[in-house]
Specification:
Elements (H helix, E strand, L loop, with lengths): L1 E5 L9 H15 L3 E7 L17 E6 L2 E6 L9 H18 L8 E5 L4 H13 L3 E5 L5 H5 L7 H16 L2 E4 L2 H9 L7 E3 L16 H6 L6 E6 L9 H10 L8 E6 L5 H10 L5 E4 L7 H5 L4 E5 L13 H8 L3 E4 L3 H8 L3 E3 L5 H13 L1 H15 L4 H25 L1
Parallel strand pairs: 1-2, 1-5, 2-4, 5-6, 6-7, 7-8, 9-10, 9-12, 10-11, 12-13, 13-14
Antiparallel strand pairs: 3-4
Helix pairs in contact: 1-15, 2-3, 8-13, 11-14
């Protein structure tokens, strides 16, 4: 089977869509299938092309057996609604123009969060007369409204109509959460064509390890209890809550023991750094994004991992992918997200849940995990066991079976016609 996969992000970018796509495609190649990925020049999240790449009309490389075609896009940082839409639209058009040059794919996959990539995948599937598969990573554009980036408007309503069109036209929808599937069914999408393949962890890379000695010394973390957030610093993440907790905990017992690491980039990072300076938060350490290979070493610095999103009903349907990396590393999770993801954390006993945007609850849970060694060790052991349930290789095999079924369905339909 020849799989054509359209994605706006791909390694060496290190965000969740890039990692999931690469790790799935790598496993499909190992299983003997041909995989072609159409993507852009790596630039996320700062809007700067990575060393060794150029923003050309067309460039090809092979990564772990995957043929990767990189096309020109309008490049901008991960901030500013209008510029990001231009980024998305430019990739959509470039991917559509590139797809006819990919020989004989058996199906085309387009992945969200934003659905302009899925639009390109749908057009490519029609040009090739093969099935279109929509990988659903986010309910977009609803998430735009949820973070306050844009209110209800004629443009948003147009996007919503386009969204529903793509759901209806997809031969299969592969959702990363059960909540997304339930949402689509309520909106009238046929449940039988929606499959759930959650995010997971590459357990060959994310494993328990001692704290990196060089990084511990560099950031002055020896003897400290380190809580960290690793990921995008965006509007959806409300990381002001972490700053509030860092300020409040200084006035609590053993407050000088705690350190907070915020690693990554995003639209809110500069503002967060400014707020930390103005408040004199010398217990907060900001670190720029690091390469994919370096990420586990930075995870190793953490005693506990903070996962947090704004308190809004939409995010009750989201499962942050970084929670599975925490499990693989055996790092207890402090989980500030309601809904399906919190249920997983509690069911797997991989961490403790705190109220989103409630810095005092976060402080209390931090104190609890530092003081209760038995609880801390129990959560750590449970996390490692839970990681086996979310092995990315197994999840890739599950999705491959869905794709095979989609291909068989297309062949049967042609024979009947």
């Amino acid at each position: 089977m020849h799989i054509l996969f359209l994605t706006d992000n791909f390694p060496p970018e290190v965000n969740a869509p890039a990692s999931r796509t690469f790790e799935h495609c790598r496993e499909w190649v190992k299983a003997g299938h041909q995989v072609t990925v159409i993507t852009g020049a790596p630039n996320f999240p700062q809007g700067k092309v990575y060393p060794g790449y150029r923003n050309r009309l067309w460039q090809c490389e092979t990564v772990a057996g995957i043929r990767v075609i990189r096309v020109w896009t309008y490049i901008t940082a991960n901030e500013g609604f209008a510029k990001r839409i231009l980024d998305y639209l430019s990739f959509m058009m470039s991917a559509i123009f590139a797809s006819p040059w990919v020989r004989k794919p058996d199906l085309v996959i387009g992945t969200s969060p934003q659905f302009f990539t899925a639009c390109a995948a749908y057009v490519a599937s029609r040009l090739k007369e093969v099935p279109f598969v929509f990988e659903l990573r986010d309910i977009w554009p609803e998430s735009i409204k949820a973070v306050g980036a844009m209110g209800d408007s004629p443009l948003i309503r147009l996007f919503e109509k386009l969204e529903m069109f793509l759901y209806r036209k997809a031969a299969r929808i592969v959702s990363v959460t059960g909540s997304f599937k339930r949402t689509l069914v309520k909106r009238g999408i046929d449940a039988t064509k929606i499959e759930v393949v959650t995010n997971g962890v590459d357990i060959s890379r994310f494993q328990p390890m001692d704290k990196d000695a060089e990084l511990t010394a560099r950031y002055g973390l020896d003897g400290k209890f380190v809580a960290g957030y690793i990921g995008t610093h965006g509007m959806a993440h409300a990381l002001e809550t972490v700053l509030d907790a860092a300020e409040a905990i200084r006035h609590q017992p053993h407050g000088d023991v705690f350190r907070f690491i915020l690693l990554g980039h995003g639209a809110r990072k500069d503002l967060l750094m400014q707020q930390a300076r103005e408040r004199g938060l010398d217990n907060v350490i900001f670190i720029d994004s690091v390469s994919k290979d370096e990420v586990p070493s930075y995870w190793s610095l953490l005693d506990v991992a903070i996962i947090h999103l704004k308190k809004t009903p939409l995010f009750e349907t989201v499962i942050p992918s970084k929670m599975f990396e925490c499990m693989g590393m055996g790092i207890p999770i402090l989980h500030g997200v309601h809904g399906e993801s919190a249920e997983i954390v509690e069911r797997e006993q991989a961490g403790v849940v705190f109220e989103p945007e409630n810095h005092q609850d976060l402080c209390d849970k931090l104190q609890q995990l530092r003081a209760d060694t038995e609880l801390f060790n129990r959560l750590r052991a449970s996390s490692l066991r839970a990681a086996q349930n979310y092995d990315r290789a197994e999840l890739a095999r599950r999705m491959l079976e869905i794709l095979r079924g989609c291909q068989r369905g297309a062949v049967t339909s042609k024979q009947e016609t």
